[in-house]
Amino acid sequence: MGKVAVTPAVVGAAAVTTAVVLVVRHRMQNSGKWDKAMDIVKEFEEKCATPVSKLRQVADAMTVEMHAGLASDIGSKLKMLTSYVDNHPTGDET
User: Fold this and answer.
1) Given CA atoms 31, 36, 37, 38 in this order, what sign does their dihedral have?
2) DSSP annotation of 53
3) Are 77 and 71 in contact (CB under 8 A)?
């Protein structure tokens, strides 16, 4: 493939990637779920008097331990049982 064919391919790929990013960003901004989730995080931060950055560190550490617990019985401090969830939370639970 020569330079003549590679250049349009790269430009086309960049255009498609940009379009996808813009669509996803638009959907996230227009989705009320993102704002609702951020409101929950802010409320939790205020009640715990803990900065969001520290909460993210705790969440990341828990994720690592959960994956290690699922991978092996002795690889983690947090023991996990392999299970399956039929439905995911919607945020409307009380």
Assistant:
1) positive
2) H
3) no
Longest CA–CA separation in the chain, Å:
61
At 85 the three-state DSSP class reads coil
pTM of the predicted model, to two decimals?
A: 0.40
Please say if the pLDDT value at position 81 is more than 60.
yes
Q: DSSP assignment of 21-45, as one string? A: HHHHHHHHHH-HHHHHHHHHHHHHH
Contact between 65 and 78 (Cβ < 8 Å): yes
CB of 76 within 8 A of CB of 65? yes
**DSSP assignment string, 55-81:** HHHHHHHHHHHHHHHHH-SSS-SS---
**1-43 pLDDT tens trace:** 555 556 666 666 666 677 777 777 777 767 677 778 788 888 8
